[in-house]
Amino acid sequence: MHSTQNFPQEALPELLETYREFVKKELFPIDLQVVSGPFRSFLPQLETLRSRAKIIGLFAPHLSKEEGGVGLNLVQFAQVSEILGQSPIGHYVFNCNAPDIGNMELLHLFGSEEQKEKWLKPLQKGEIRSCFAMTEPAHAGSNPVHLSTTAVRKGDNYHINGHKWFTTAADGAAFTIVMAVTNPYAESPYHRASMIIVPLDNPGYHLVRNIPIMGEAGEDYLSHGEVKFENCIVPAGNLIGLEGQGFALAQERLGPGRIHHCMRWIGICERVFDLMCKRALSRELDLGKPLAEKQTIQNWIAESRAEIKASRLMVLDTAQKMQQFGAKAVREDISTIKFFVADVLMKVIDRAIQVHGALGITDDTLLSFWYRHERGARIYDGPDEVHKSALAKSILKNYASDGK
Amino acid sequence: MHSTQNFPQEALPELLETYREFVKKELFPIDLQVVSGPFRSFLPQLETLRSRAKIIGLFAPHLSKEEGGVGLNLVQFAQVSEILGQSPIGHYVFNCNAPDIGNMELLHLFGSEEQKEKWLKPLQKGEIRSCFAMTEPAHAGSNPVHLSTTAVRKGDNYHINGHKWFTTAADGAAFTIVMAVTNPYAESPYHRASMIIVPLDNPGYHLVRNIPIMGEAGEDYLSHGEVKFENCIVPAGNLIGLEGQGFALAQERLGPGRIHHCMRWIGICERVFDLMCKRALSRELDLGKPLAEKQTIQNWIAESRAEIKASRLMVLDTAQKMQQFGAKAVREDISTIKFFVADVLMKVIDRAIQVHGALGITDDTLLSFWYRHERGARIYDGPDEVHKSALAKSILKNYASDGK
Amino acid sequence: MHSTQNFPQEALPELLETYREFVKKELFPIDLQVVSGPFRSFLPQLETLRSRAKIIGLFAPHLSKEEGGVGLNLVQFAQVSEILGQSPIGHYVFNCNAPDIGNMELLHLFGSEEQKEKWLKPLQKGEIRSCFAMTEPAHAGSNPVHLSTTAVRKGDNYHINGHKWFTTAADGAAFTIVMAVTNPYAESPYHRASMIIVPLDNPGYHLVRNIPIMGEAGEDYLSHGEVKFENCIVPAGNLIGLEGQGFALAQERLGPGRIHHCMRWIGICERVFDLMCKRALSRELDLGKPLAEKQTIQNWIAESRAEIKASRLMVLDTAQKMQQFGAKAVREDISTIKFFVADVLMKVIDRAIQVHGALGITDDTLLSFWYRHERGARIYDGPDEVHKSALAKSILKNYASDGK
Amino acid sequence: MHSTQNFPQEALPELLETYREFVKKELFPIDLQVVSGPFRSFLPQLETLRSRAKIIGLFAPHLSKEEGGVGLNLVQFAQVSEILGQSPIGHYVFNCNAPDIGNMELLHLFGSEEQKEKWLKPLQKGEIRSCFAMTEPAHAGSNPVHLSTTAVRKGDNYHINGHKWFTTAADGAAFTIVMAVTNPYAESPYHRASMIIVPLDNPGYHLVRNIPIMGEAGEDYLSHGEVKFENCIVPAGNLIGLEGQGFALAQERLGPGRIHHCMRWIGICERVFDLMCKRALSRELDLGKPLAEKQTIQNWIAESRAEIKASRLMVLDTAQKMQQFGAKAVREDISTIKFFVADVLMKVIDRAIQVHGALGITDDTLLSFWYRHERGARIYDGPDEVHKSALAKSILKNYASDGK
User: Fold this and answer.
1) Into how many domains does chain D fold?
2) Mind telling me which residue stretches traverse the membrane in this protein (chains A, B, C, D) (predicted)?
3) Which chains touch A (3 or more CB pairs under 8 A)?
4) pTM metric for this prediction
5) Are residue B253 and residue B380 in the same domain, yes or no?
6) ipTM
7) How far is C398 from chain D (nearest CA, A)?
8) Can you give the C-alpha Rg of chain C in angstroms?
């Protein structure tokens, strides 16, 4: 997804079709079972799928060929991301899942050579997993400048102390990137924090628990950790970029990250839409009278189709502009897609559940998994409210300055 | 809740306050833990609470004093039900939880003396639990006349065969009431089924599984069973009422049942509203700037308060009319509250989650439990769509017949 | 509607039925024509109807018998108000229309004997009309303390200067009550303004225009004036109450006023609902296939019925409490019904228009009149946003002070 | 807008900017006044603007250069249409307003040489206006096959009888195209009607009235006629295409017509959005505290921006596909944009009114005009309900046939 990458555009349709086939044939038959867990018991099977993905050249679509990937640019990857998003294990199998993909981007852009060698390369190959420790239970995530976690430089080391949660996939990860305050007296709160790599076998690091979320604590990749750093000592060389650059780097990380999330959500929408239509056609109220004949069901199908289409066009438009003009130029667009698509996602899932009736609330379909685990979509990476306010303020600021 | 019951109205406020105190002091501190399970490990503790409830005269509010209860009528009980609904273990502790309460009503009204002696009495005392097997996976629950389960009379027995699910609390129950086709050739499909009592130690009965619902299979009272009847033989005396009366009895059971559900949902709304307000006041975005200052949050609080108030007034109005004029007279009202309150419930829960941010999707509050386990509220006992159509058709029919 | 009034409760059902018949037989056949105007041309016809109302004892339902009215209390009047609201000329014919009813209440409670003799009595008899000049184009009505209109005491007179608009029914009125700043240096902005009576033949008063609103300027009672006071001199005896009491009196005026509006809106909802059902039954898509068979239409009918019912119960509950405990005790309830019912009103009208198709946007039914002229319901007497914030802040304040 | 047209793409941005300037400088200052009427009094002024548009090469953007137009293709014209839509007189001034533009397309594609000479050419030059008589008061427009208007061939003439309404801009038009049943016994109801040109000076044609719509009957171009054909005799040569082709031709006419409407609506949205933002910035609640600081207002601005963006991308995407693959290929897309954009339009207008407070419901801004006159957007050219059902059925049909 580096701006210089450019998988030949004319070959894209065929590539997309290949991904589509793989996901449909290899992942759809097993994904419900995998997410029903225990996740670890499926690791060998997932490893086999990753190997197959490598062999047929689909692995790590976002990485350059040199890095062992497919070499897609942002817009191309967005289209793959929608396809992978149709399965809850899609991004994982192709090694482009959050939070690893964000960490790969970060280390690729800002990591030292040593960091790249030690952490980035095995990550790109899918040999290890990583996580990202930012959110703290003591502070509202919607105002990220408030952090209590500190990293104090003592000699050649940082001494890190703090309490984080929603450290996605911490369980089983090899390292985390932690956001910690290094410069508490910097004038701007945006210049106080830094990103530091912490290997998770460090004795000062503790995984307190996999947080039970919406009925499941999960494990391994499918989990969100509550973690503590208690006098956790790491070499100063684990600092990414410079001290005080934490939020600047986080912005770089989040921009494309929101594109990825949005396209993944659209993938979910498509799978859910498909389940909804099939159920509407197959479930009969009376002999030969399927649910599909009910106008309310038709309304939901039509509205869902319209909203999904709107979502896709907006996200691809944003990806196109970001690729062309950079992340800063599309801040309004990013906020727009974040709250718009998250809302569509939850509405489509909700309608599909209603169409499924009792079956819809069981764990016998993927609907329940997504209803539960994507409720966070309206919260993480900035809740709806924050993005709406940010967008409006930005629009209004332009007005004021225009003298309009 | 029998129409003749009438706890002295002037003593009601104090009684309600006593329930309120009990729920707040005894249940609130433990209920999140109890529903996080395993449920069975809490049975002794819950038994202790039941004993205390009996001692202070709060047990079985719906039953007459002779039956060991408090002697409330429908409207009085509705008000208690709201209070108990604030805790997910409220109705259970006071032995007025679904599906037992419905079965008690049914057996009280239509059970034979023998059935009352054997099943109703221990149920009323809380010595056993029961369940109700109606919904079948093969048929849309929204059109209940389609049933494949059959009960064939052979000599003095019924031979029952069929496949049911969403048999709430089957795990650990002593008996189920099963809805089965006894008269397949009756002209009206509403006259084909009967209700029959099946003791669950019957060798022809099998609990296939506790259905995993929204992330949890649960156990004991907190579960929904998938069950099979395979040549399950019970004495003909286990028939409730007459052959072919199944749906007629079900209607009797459902009327007050929907009042109970709606008042329970309002109780949930109140607890959730309380959590939302407290979170809004305590969560700070910046020092001294709680979420509560945000107008969006204020909108949610105001809209929730309005909708909850509307819900309560409508349900109590319906209860009042049902008590006075009977269940038939309030069929439109019942449909109205069913879809209106279920919708309010889900909206209020959703807003509270959003106000809680990341915490809202964890299992560290009750929000996640209700978000998951009450999604069914818009589906069971008739999905929204069915009730809306039924209400509209009834209204329009009156128009047509009025010659208006 | 004075708290001491009490029309015999047992006679109420019959009285309501009499109003219902009158409205249906006398007003429904002509009201569309009357509001299509020109309004003045219908004044003789309306006068005849008022005479008839007086003769059969229905005139001025809110006034005591001594004042020539029916003697209803607030809750009783609310029920009449719903009935009258079904016709856009209902309240006018029975002389209980805004803004006259508010002015009658005000003068009854706070007017001097002289003011009562001169202004209140002819108002009560329906001999004159009045208006109320508060809102100013230069200030947001949602924060009423900002007023530029001043009334300066010079000797025995007030010299009034200012610019007002939305002075409802100014055209043809005999006097207005104007809200003007008399005490600009009072510490609290709530103590700066006063209410003063201005006869509209005063040379310092000018009706600039009847404001064109939603396509119509209207005239006479059916209009909203933009007015100017230019060195308008009135005797000091025209002050109502004391100097600086303006907002305190306005609150007294607004409390029951919002009940009246809400019940009138519910009346509109019922008429609109009736039109919607009839259209659904009579409009055929294909031979013998009326719109009423479409599930979307059924949904709208059901949702409208539910929302109207919720509205009525909430407003009557508020009226009951206000009657019993006073206006202050129900401030939260008043805010609640204001935004809840205004929203329901607009939704019901919108659905009915959609059911009517092209006919719905013509002026051939009352739908267009209400769609246009009730859009203001979400704005006047405090826009939705203000009431929601006010309600939420009040709720949250109780929390904070409870130490909850 | 003919598929072969192709204004040089590289010159488009400058052309769009020229339109933008023209609309802003020439139309914005007068449009509110013009639509406030009487419209005829503004005809000379509008004629001057048309002349200027011709001189600077902006007139008739949809026509080829040979026809005196700019030569835009569908996608290019769509972008111009959004700009013109920002003013309610935009399309009129540039002679690309409905229903004339539809009639031009129709005659261009299917008119005889004689018809083109006599009717099309003066229409293209803006010398005459036309109208289109299809909808009948006696039949639901949402099922257009039901028509009572007949055209009976007698010798060389058609004798037309029937009753139509919503014949837009009939007042002052030179001719109408009428949809009438010529082949009542054709098997398919879609093959029964034909399109016939009727000059409006025909003695058998009567303009019954300009229908009062949302408070205004309007006149001339700004009106919707109710018309009657009473033994109206026209030459057989006035038939467009063949007998029985009426609906086939109507489909051709409607496809691009819906694109035009949708882009016009987006133009309205942009103007309304602009008014909303300016009002939010300029209206102060307290000194220095503009409405814009309120989070509710910010939410509306953000949501409106998102929805407008989604609308534009979807309509342009549909236009692109229609241009490339023809109208049939985009039937689902057309239904999608029709209901989606109409809904967005009404929501954006409604929010802007609320932000404007009392001013929003006056006719002192364009908001009232659009609130009233665009309510029809959800009804004409197929109500929301019909498009949603059509879209859903089409989607589900593909499922069924896919054997998916």
Assistant:
1) 3
2) none
3) B, C, D
4) 0.97
5) yes
6) 0.96
7) 23
8) 22
